[in-house]
Amino acid sequence: MASSYGLHSGYFHPTLRKWQGGAGTTIAPHNLMxxxxxxxxxxxxxxISSMPGVLRMGINTMAVFLEPLxxxxxxxxxxxxxxxxxxxxxxxxxxxxxxxxxGAIKRIKRDYPDLLVAVDVCLCPYTISGHCGVLKDDGFxxxxxxxxxxxxxxxxxxLAGADVIAPSDMxxxxxxxxxxxxxxxxxxxRVSVMSYSVKFASAFYGPFREAAxxxxxxxxxxxxxxxxASRGLAMRAAKRDEVEGADMLMVKPGLAYLDxxxxxxxxxxxxxxxxxxxxxxxxxxxxxxxxxxxxLKAIVMETLTAMRRSGADIxxxxxxxQLLDWLMEK
Amino acid sequence: MASSYGLHSGYFHPTLRKWQGGAGTTIAPHNLMxxxxxxxxxxxxxxISSMPGVLRMGINTMAVFLEPLxxxxxxxxxxxxxxxxxxxxxxxxxxxxxxxxxGAIKRIKRDYPDLLVAVDVCLCPYTISGHCGVLKDDGFxxxxxxxxxxxxxxxxxxLAGADVIAPSDMxxxxxxxxxxxxxxxxxxxRVSVMSYSVKFASAFYGPFREAAxxxxxxxxxxxxxxxxASRGLAMRAAKRDEVEGADMLMVKPGLAYLDxxxxxxxxxxxxxxxxxxxxxxxxxxxxxxxxxxxxLKAIVMETLTAMRRSGADIxxxxxxxQLLDWLMEK
Amino acid sequence: MASSYGLHSGYFHPTLRKWQGGAGTTIAPHNLMxxxxxxxxxxxxxxISSMPGVLRMGINTMAVFLEPLxxxxxxxxxxxxxxxxxxxxxxxxxxxxxxxxxGAIKRIKRDYPDLLVAVDVCLCPYTISGHCGVLKDDGFxxxxxxxxxxxxxxxxxxLAGADVIAPSDMxxxxxxxxxxxxxxxxxxxRVSVMSYSVKFASAFYGPFREAAxxxxxxxxxxxxxxxxASRGLAMRAAKRDEVEGADMLMVKPGLAYLDxxxxxxxxxxxxxxxxxxxxxxxxxxxxxxxxxxxxLKAIVMETLTAMRRSGADIxxxxxxxQLLDWLMEK
Amino acid sequence: MASSYGLHSGYFHPTLRKWQGGAGTTIAPHNLMxxxxxxxxxxxxxxISSMPGVLRMGINTMAVFLEPLxxxxxxxxxxxxxxxxxxxxxxxxxxxxxxxxxGAIKRIKRDYPDLLVAVDVCLCPYTISGHCGVLKDDGFxxxxxxxxxxxxxxxxxxLAGADVIAPSDMxxxxxxxxxxxxxxxxxxxRVSVMSYSVKFASAFYGPFREAAxxxxxxxxxxxxxxxxASRGLAMRAAKRDEVEGADMLMVKPGLAYLDxxxxxxxxxxxxxxxxxxxxxxxxxxxxxxxxxxxxLKAIVMETLTAMRRSGADIxxxxxxxQLLDWLMEK
Amino acid sequence: MASSYGLHSGYFHPTLRKWQGGAGTTIAPHNLMxxxxxxxxxxxxxxISSMPGVLRMGINTMAVFLEPLxxxxxxxxxxxxxxxxxxxxxxxxxxxxxxxxxGAIKRIKRDYPDLLVAVDVCLCPYTISGHCGVLKDDGFxxxxxxxxxxxxxxxxxxLAGADVIAPSDMxxxxxxxxxxxxxxxxxxxRVSVMSYSVKFASAFYGPFREAAxxxxxxxxxxxxxxxxASRGLAMRAAKRDEVEGADMLMVKPGLAYLDxxxxxxxxxxxxxxxxxxxxxxxxxxxxxxxxxxxxLKAIVMETLTAMRRSGADIxxxxxxxQLLDWLMEK
Amino acid sequence: MASSYGLHSGYFHPTLRKWQGGAGTTIAPHNLMxxxxxxxxxxxxxxISSMPGVLRMGINTMAVFLEPLxxxxxxxxxxxxxxxxxxxxxxxxxxxxxxxxxGAIKRIKRDYPDLLVAVDVCLCPYTISGHCGVLKDDGFxxxxxxxxxxxxxxxxxxLAGADVIAPSDMxxxxxxxxxxxxxxxxxxxRVSVMSYSVKFASAFYGPFREAAxxxxxxxxxxxxxxxxASRGLAMRAAKRDEVEGADMLMVKPGLAYLDxxxxxxxxxxxxxxxxxxxxxxxxxxxxxxxxxxxxLKAIVMETLTAMRRSGADIxxxxxxxQLLDWLMEK
Lengths: 330, 330, 330, 330, 330, 330
Ligand SMILES: [Zn+2]
Ligand SMILES: [Zn+2]
Ligand SMILES: [Zn+2]
Ligand SMILES: [Zn+2]
Ligand SMILES: [Zn+2]
Ligand SMILES: [Zn+2]
What we know:
The structure is a homohexamer.
Chain A: H1 14-21, E1 32-39, E2 45-47, E3 55-57, H2 59-71, E4 76-82, H3 100-111, E5 116-121, H4 143-160, E6 164-167, H5 174-185, E7 192-199, H6 206-211, H7 231-244, E8 248-252, H8 258-267, E9 273-277, H9 279-290, H10 296-309, E10 314-317, H11 320-329
Parallel strand pairs in A: 1-3, 1-4, 1-10, 4-5, 5-6, 6-7, 7-8, 8-9, 9-10
Antiparallel strand pairs in A: 2-3
Helix pairs in contact in A: 2-3, 4-5, 7-8
Bound molecules: zinc ion (6 copies).
């Protein structure tokens, strides 16, 4: 046998195996970002049946909930609005002070000033249609008006103190629109934009829709979320976001799209790369472990290792609380 | 907005979305391969608790089971031995006519002569240790003796009529050893070798170990199955197998390794690429759907589409029976 | 300003800066390898004046010295022989049981069985000339005879239980020669070869020569260590070692050769990459800090971060004991 | 052994070793640039304790100091202001005729008209905060106002006769701002811009802060100097500077960033590449040699050879005076 | 105008222009190699009418001639045999001690031991046909027998002390044949092979044929020297030589083949690259200058700069004596 | 010998050699462009001593001279003004109807309407300084005013009927300025711009300066013609011209810059590539042949083959008349 074909010599010992991990496959607290669903009632606390162990919270509840996590090393959160305030066609309430996320940003910045606060920006939590853009009469997205609304909401979050704006709407041109707003505000250098660059129209989002009350009232999102099979659109979307100035790129969902993560990272090695382990992934790992198919910690660590291996620097995951414990165990 | 940045125009219509799918993301019966666990008792039929809906079968049961599937278009199976015959240190029984897989090969070739018969080759079903190679006193693999045994077993399957030999043992140099045997037998041109080229030491194999009674009696397989994080060893293993003559390459497990599939396919576009949707993946999709997190058909189709998008030509999956139905539904 | 040209938004916050670190720039205990100079006297302990804080030790002293380090997470050591046993022209004593390194290997394997033991292999500690190969009358290296001696020494270390053979001699063809020996011994899968692939004829080795008593008796090593300016030979040497079967590659010295590390890693991403922060680097960082030019911890961490950034997976450094403490602080 | 694996034949002779040096690794006077710290007192001469042998000088002292160096071949200098004139929040004095650097430019252009005069441009020598940009109340940089001030200072240096403007401030967009000023002045073709493109927040700057009295009054520069581990931001910064019209790029510090030099040069081979061997590097080589760890000339030449090998065309170094002598010796 | 399009700012000053030279365009003595024609008569000295100023010399004359050149920095020569000893069909005399080149090698090694001695190896100076290989009856080259003779001659030069063997014959496979001989002799690490890898069937060789009496007696060399227009064969020849172990590659002639030099260097950056400024080039530059079309020094320096720019590390040129003077002037 | 290393089999036969020529190395009349020096006196005819056989001509002489050449296939000419009309600082006369080139354009368009008429555009034939741009008091180019004058002259040629405008001045931004003028004139689609994109400050221009009376009155052109060694500026200049809309790119001079031609063509394969075999090249080939160093036809054909091989589509050469004959011979 050619000596270069004897591979066992490279990984027979635990330390050798760590060396084979190569660059960027370890997991540290700073690689994790915790999604938080913020509700209107400041003391609210609501379990989400499809995502066992995940809660919707008001800002007071949230503040208490975060304390032990920050102590364990939590560095970043991603806020979602779940509001019952009166909605309209264009999502005006998203930019209002009454949006519970605005309060959440301020509260975290007061209580945990070092915690990095990222905020999801979209129209779907605020529109009657539940769609991520303003609709025209023919049912198509009005891209121009949608951008105006998205920028308006993003601006209100920036003024509240958000560190990272994370637009998840998939409208064409939103990154540039947000960056232009930041430049006008004079705060382009104190706010990051993490783009949901490559977001597929996936069946893995099911539980989230319960969590965030975000299912569209009619139709689906296939006209703006990417077709499952499309590498091409995925690459074009990532490229566009880089050109428009995104500070970080994202691929969503996670596990079933690691090939896309790899390819985006290979093309854009200069930008930090996020991946979203979405609600359906959370649920299936949870239920699989509960049914005894595998050990939860082992399987979650394997999926996160895989995400890191495929190029992700940032992993948005509902398992963050458990992971902070697991990382300390090891 | 730069006109090349308006992406919605590329996928607002269902037909446009299909065009974006790009090459090789559709799923046809010939892309599927069904794993079958063959037991000693020719009329045996045993449910596997950790894999609801999957059975271990004797050759008679199997023959009956296959009939409707072949009618629906099944083109390929992958056989595994689950035997209680007296084992030893080197897995001698694997190469004996009493190995139930030998009978299964012959039976399928008699009853369904057009069905492509692939056979898993390893030592673990036949050794007392349950390890995939012959062990030395110091607990390390004796690579040379292991190759001799693997070749012996493969040869018995070839003589029984197998179309595809699929070594899953991860010993160094087994592809060349098998190909040399085939050349000596004069049947290199009637037997393919599908290498488990890139097989990780994964937590997703849990249910399979129940299914195939294949957990090692002691220790683990980390000295020969690849470390989860290692792109480097994965690429070296695929390269080696190509050089040694593998007809097809495989990545295993599936979903959490799509980045590896992408990279192997990019480096070896000339070879058909297989992916194994393993038992743990089957279980979590099943349980997730059962718990209402998502629709089973939608989620299975999404994962298979993802596998195809990442470069897989052949998908080995326990969902094959359902898929044959779903594909007919369209 | 074009929005993609506003870079500050990507790194104004500590967590954002960590994300920018990208893959593989964190430092963990498994990234460190501690060099140990082993002397004949089993209870010996000798300070090295040119490397303040570094010791030569006998095997008893070494065993005691290692205990707290292992407790703090030390995973790997690299042993060097410093012997006064009677030398000859071909370094025969290197392969003798009296070589103190042989005892050191056995002792570590007994006391700290999980510690990965790498051993430097060369002729210079054992030859009268102090050169790394056997010399011919015309002063040129006798490459063939040198390989025979190197393999002989390597074999004695393998039989003593070494996990990793690390040839530092720079003879042409030594990796293949060592791998052939391992294959003959039947232990190619339990011994790694970490090649000093790219070793330059550097002025940074000064203090080491005192430490290991390894200055050549006459002449210099420019005929076998690489010219400082040569990218080309560096790349050819790394390529050759990969083809000949090296499990890991090394660049030596470290800091002034990060461009070479980058280029070797880019060409050989499949192999773990080691870098040697050599004695002169240790000395200048130590003396620079002592003179108040910079803080020792900050500067050592910066150089190691740089090494990781340039592609190194393994860092061989005399600062390992301090680093194990510093890593726990942080 | 394969004949292409015999490498010794390529470098056994000194002339062969020179050939292996490949392109661009020799060092000539035109590869060197001497930093000069200019103080208010025209006859001032102040030693810098942390950089033994380096002086702060007034313009008369400087003129005398330069004479023998020019005679030995000095071709380029880089001027830094060290002024005690009354500072303010925006660094207005930087653009005033009283800035000692203005006088120094004129003096050199009068006395040594062929000497290329580069001038460092930043706000930190002139602001009360000691930061490189104008600060807003929230402690963040006011990027827009910072650019206005930087351009103002650069313009005063251009009008005084500077050949090269070298902005070291790391504000977003300064290269374009300076080039726009030059175009307006009608002298874009007689002034070069050498950008400190890739300047890391390094611990190697310690002694310089004493030399130039440039430590910030509070906080640090991590919000505008690059994170140590970030290849991505480094590449984005270099790319931006090329697009904005920089005539030369720079990486700073030097030794620990040769991988970055290599990568920037590979991506921008069309632009001359500078590297700054900073104060901490000077100090550690000096102290290391003083402590006997290595020979000063040998080690300085090795580090400069390494810089050239990694792609640097221009080396800014405090060793320039000694190097001019050493180059003549050889 | 976009600021990056103002190029004048990059080269308005002499020092800026030197920086633009980039890597590897300066010329130093070690970049030059002087061809010497050695005749039988040890005291011979013969002008060559077609190459004004170039001489054929015996070894005594040569020794005297070299003295001032070595004093001025000459580092390398390339020897050619011009013999009148009785020739035959296979060039046997080339390997005899009476070959004047054998004496020349020894003489130089005695008188100027540091001078690198390269020796041209071919059959044409020794065969009746004047062809570079042994001919078969059908007029085609007998490649196998040619290799035997070439190796025999090369071996006699090696035993005489040559540092570099430079085969110019263009037979298929000669590099491997020579390397095998060196390996057998045990001196692969003290002899370099500089291959005339890419030698075109050029009209620029005219004067050389007078100089070396090397015109073939009949026919031409188009069956073994490359067609003028062929990039493809040029690249294949260079690749082959690298694989067969050549230490240096060469392109010949020089000026009209700089595109080929560029392409070979780009593909083989790891190997030093030689270029031969052949006799016809020498003649036309000489005559052009004599006729007043340009200044000789300026035009020779421009052509050599061009050669260096295109990737050449070594320039074989008849202008070497003048260049050694010119380099000192500057 | 590996079978792929036997190269002789690819070129032993003349037809095989032609096949090896690859794409684009043949020479046809349409690959040639003839430079013509036009003087004020319409019947003038002046030999140029430094370019034996080349003439300066008035438009009547020119018309007669062209007749047989057109008959032999001449397809393109490049006109140069050599005028004695009163010059000034800004070259105003260049744009006047009295400029003899204006008449020449009209005459050719009348007499040989199918002949492609390219016209050199520069200020040096018309300014007192003899420089290619308008000078400021400090001796630097006034780039803005120069562009205005160049555009004015180009416009007068366009109005006279020129097909191709060929600016040779090397001012920054002239291609865009000329294209803007063409667009304003409404004739962008009937006039090509062939940019002297990459024009080096070469010693090969000597005889031309006599031919065109174009030596500058003082100083040299090194501030706007490219430094000989600069690949980087060459690539940036070609890139800029492509971006600004050049229809064809040119490298000048020819022979010593084939590496640059190769690289420009590799980067800009979409644009036709011109090369200028300049006066000094003409002279040295002429004198070399006259002195018997080589055959003129063979050597000219070899140099043109080399130019074609390196990527040139258009060759501007004074040998065009002879070549038209030689091409017919063959
Ligand atoms: Zn939405
Ligand atoms: Zn197994
Ligand atoms: Zn050694
Ligand atoms: Zn500053
Ligand atoms: Zn010959
Ligand atoms: Zn001109």
